[in-house]
Amino acid sequence: MPVTLITKTSPVSLPVYLRKRDKRSHWGHSDDHRDSRIETAVAEVFNPSVKAFSLFKAANDEELYRIVVGLNSLRASLSQQIDFVAFTESEIRSAGIYLSVNLW
Amino acid sequence: MSTVILNDISWSSCGSDDVFADDLMIERSRFLSILRRHISAKGIERSKLRDVLKAYLCFSPKADQLINDLISACVEMKVPGRLDAAIDILSPLGSQILRYARNYLINDIRNWNHLYPSRAYEPNDDYWYILLRAVAQSKTPAGERVKFVCMCKTANNRHIIEAVLEALSDIDTDESYAEIKAFLGHPEPFIADLASELVTNR
Asked: Counting Cβ atoms within 10 Å, is residue A12 exposed (0-12), middle (13-18) or buried (19+)?
């Protein structure tokens, strides 16, 4: 089934900033207790001991596909599934995170 | 041939156990050093280092120890992509990783299943996530992979069930998806939603 940025992020406004997850459970579930969910996400996705995080900006499907192919180019198969969590620019700014651009 | 005989004599006459132990320590140290370089490498260098690691695992007489070292190191690293990196190195081992995983599961059941079931699946969830998905992505008969992965499907642990579902999705057969569908009505919403998403995205 083809993945499109619009269907996956709707009704969130584009562009979105994507962070790769190692496991889906690292981001928890909406039914989880909020405090434990935050604790897990901070430890596994935004570890405080790390000074900079890689986020991938995607404004359309082509940019999404480029990110997927780029990340999978170092893997055993180009068709490996990748799980992302998406943020809008305003969400990132409201968290006090500074964005800098680093082109591939 | 004469070299082999001389080597045999030298092993038996100077404490061969110590020599083997030293060799193993050196081999493990080199292996983990290459693994750390692999995790931080990019592009072609990363692929080359992955091939070197695979060669160690194929030819070392202590390959099981190295597999354990690799999984443990990747779990501990806490850098993005570490789980995928371990899976990519281990899955090409085929029947070797399936045999390792079976023995690991047997030991776990032997240790914990009856008396201390809450301590099953040691040392941690990430270790089993790597193990199950590496087996699932290996080029061994699909029926054997489904059988092994399903041995863990009764785990009372969200993270192990997550690994089971992802592994069944990796196997990608009608049989494996029939197993995933059995989780659609799982009482834990995370598991039920994950099963639903995997079935929908097939």
From this structure: middle
